[in-house]
Design goal:
The complex is a heterodimer of chains A (313) and B (279). Chain A has 313 residues and is mainly alpha-helical. Chain A folds into 2 domains: 3-62, no CATH class; 88-312, MetI-like fold (Orthogonal Bundle). Helix content of chain A is 72%, strand content 2%. Chain A has helices at 3-13, 30-62, 77-84, 86-98, 101-117, 123-131, 138-148, 154-161, 173-201, 205-213, 218-229, 231-247, 250-256, 268-278, 282-312, and strands at 64-66, 71-73. Chain A has a two-stranded antiparallel ribbon. In chain A, a hairpin with a 4-residue loop joins strand 1 (64-66) and strand 2. Chain B contains 14 helices and no strands. Chain B has 2 domains: 4-61, no CATH class; 69-276, MetI-like fold, CATH 1.10.3720. By secondary structure, chain B is mainly alpha-helical. Chains A and B meet through helix 1, helix 2, helix 5, helix 6 and helix 7 of A and helix 1, helix 4, helix 5, helix 6 and helix 7 of B.
């Protein structure tokens, strides 16, 4: 249904895009073009149908008051109602608090990558070991930390050894957020370590050798050579982590606190779920989803721009 | 890659090793701890949650298997992941190969669009996809979820395979073409065998992503009969928080396949990371 519509404008645009063409393009026949289009069509149709169209549909839903069956056009009402809602302000603040995890993850990843870069015995093994949390589901990690920090769990057993009475970590907002941030750092730093390590490996080793010959010690080299050279990768890592904080907390919150106590650990992505699937306010849920999407899109653009400006100087 | 540690005196390597070991323990300890908990009786756990188990038992596994539908959840998950990966690899392979090697009109715009579509978070998709699927009766059915997994994984998979197929030796593919091999012959018998490392990497990454997915699996399969393993675990964790050994069993069963995959295919996972920055 969608492919002929797509093919027409794309075909006229292709005249300008000869650069990426494989060599010998003059010999390509029309039939081979058609084969190419046919091979790409299933993927394009699926992505249009299940990603592009749903985004448009979500925008339309956000202008309606709906329980999923009957739609009632209300214009921007869902947006104005949400933006005036003190609950959303609170949830947004909670999300900002979770940003504390970003510098922690980056610091841990930076330390690990700089140490791994020294390529001491067993560094390959450590690299894989640090990566282990990244292959686990957020549901698994969340439940692991929920078990570890549960009232009768091992952390409280350790505290008891020091004569500290058991803490109900998930009963208070502060302590629950604290545990979730620990889980975030634990699960997040391994991947960032790998990215930073690839950035470090791109530095010309001769710079280090020259500096060593000139008598620069390990710390001096770290401060004057290593860190300035991975500024770009550090910027990328921080962007990824900020985006992650706004879109990937659902699994943790879902299994650890279900947003509670009250709404104290509810984040933006969890609130979308609560609005849409616990209270069937699908219009408001869609409006919030669209706003979160705009927020992370804006953040990405902003961070990329800031990063590009600082790179040019 | 030069050996930088040559500039480090032996003495300086010791503290680095110690720090790495400490970080390594902080990663491994919680996982090993829960693996042990899964084999302990409830009374033993509550008596001394932090200490070593006094006896090991398989009873927890038997109870969880019999009472919480874990076997069925595993079976459902295997079906979804196996069918999903096969279809996704085929569709993404066709598109990736054509975009890399065939004169597809506007190929550059299509690959550019794929990268930007990758940034759409699943929270934005879940409400419209739920409504769309419920309208055509696919909520609460495995094919509906498989379709969603295939489609949402396609932008990354296709982009990854464009890069893979583009890096292949052009002269071999040209030779096949001159010999009169058509699209399917070239794709299946020439290009794809050469691209096996890339295909394997993609397979591992997408397996992990599908196996661990929670939001779509939870919302789109609301009935217990069709639960997948990750949402089933999330439910066990929510309902039976007092029974830590049971929760630990669920955790181990859910975490084991990705962990095994990482330990056997670490090379593929690590090499795939460079390409998956955008995820």
């Amino acid at each position: 249904m969608t492919s002929p519509v797509l093919a027409a404008p794309v075909a006229s645009a292709s005249a300008g895009a000869t650069g990426a063409r494989p060599p010998g393009r003059a010999r390509w026949r029309t039939s081979e073009r058609l084969v190419g289009i046919a091979a790409v069509a299933p993927a394009v149709v699926l992505v249009l149908g299940f990603m592009v169209y749903p985004v448009c549909y979500a925008i339309w839903i956000s202008f309606n008051k709906t329980n999923g069956l009957s739609f009632d056009y209300v214009g921007l009402d869902n947006y104005t109602k949400l933006l005036a809602d003190p609950l959303l302000h609170k949830v947004f603040l909670t999300n900002l608090i979770f940003l504390i995890s970003v510098p922690l993850v980056i610091l841990a990843a930076l330390v690990c990558s700089v140490l791994l870069y020294e390529r001491i015995r067993g560094w390959r093994f450590f690299r894989v070991l640090f990566f282990v949390p990244n292959v686990l589901s957020t549901a698994v990690i969340g439940l692991m930390f929920k078990s570890l920090f549960s009232y009768r769990g091992p952390i409280n057993a350790v505290l008891a050894q020091f004569g500290i009475p058991p803490v109900d970590f998930f009963a208070g907002a502060g302590s629950a957020i604290f545990v979730i941030i620990i889980a975030l750092v634990w699960s997040g730093f391994g991947y960032q370590t790998i990215i930073l390590l690839s950035g470090l490996s791109a530095i010309n080793p001769e710079i280090f050798e020259a500096a060593t010959v000139d008598g620069a010690g390990w710390w001096k080299r770290l401060w004057y050579i290593t860190l300035p050279n991975i500024r770009g990768v550090l910027a990328l890592v921080s962007i990824l982590n900020v985006l992650y904080t706004f879109t990937a907390l659902f699994g943790f919150i879902f299994v650890m606190t279900a947003g509670g106590p009250g709404y104290d650990t509810t984040t933006l992505d969890y609130l979308i779920y609560t609005l849409a699937f616990s209270s069937t306010r699908l219009g408001e849920g869609a409006a919030l989803a669209v706003m979160v999407f705009l927020l992370i899109g804006g953040l990405t653009a902003l961070q990329l721009r800031v990063f590009r400006v600082s790179e040019e100087n | 890659m030069s050996n930088v540690s040559a500039t480090l005196p032996r003495k300086a390597r010791v503290p680095i090793f110690v720090v790495l070991v400490l970080v390594g323990i902080s990663i491994a300890y919680p996982i090993l701890y829960l693996a042990f908990t899964a084999f302990r009786t409830r009374a033993d756990y509550l008596g001394n949650p932090f200490g070593l188990p006094s006896e090991l038992t398989l009873q927890n596994f038997i109870s969880v298997w019999n009472n919480y539908g874990i076997g069925r959840a595993l079976l459902n998950t295997v079906i979804v992941v196996a069918v999903g990966l096969t279809v996704q690899l085929l569709v993404a392979g066709l598109a990736g190969f054509a975009l890399a090697r065939y004169p597809v009109p506007g190929a550059r715009y299509i690959s550019g669009a794929l990268v930007s579509v990758m940034l759409i978070p699943s929270q934005v998709l879940i409400i419209p996809i739920y409504l769309l699927l419920s309208r055509i009766g696919l909520v609460g059915s495995l094919p509906g979820l498989i379709l969603v997994y295939v489609a949402t994984g396609l932008p990354f998979a296709t982009f990854f395979l464009i890069v893979t197929y583009r890096s292949l030796d052009t002269s071999v593919l040209e030779a096949a073409r001159v010999d009169g091999a058509g699209f399917w012959r070239t794709f299946l018998s020439v290009a794809s065998p050469m691209a096996i490392p890339g295909l394997a990497t993609l397979l591992v990454l997408q397996f992990i992503a599908m196996w661990n997915e929670l939001l779509f699996a939870y919302i789109l399969l609301p009935n217990d009969q069709l639960r997948l393993i990750t949402p089933a675990l999330a439910q066990i964790g929510g309902r039976f928080t007092n029974d830590q050994p049971f929760v630990a069993v669920g955790l181990i069963l859910t975490a084991l396949p990705p962990l095994l995959l990482l330990s056997f295919a670490a090379k593929y996972v690590m090499s795939g990371l460079g390409a998956s920055f955008g995820r």
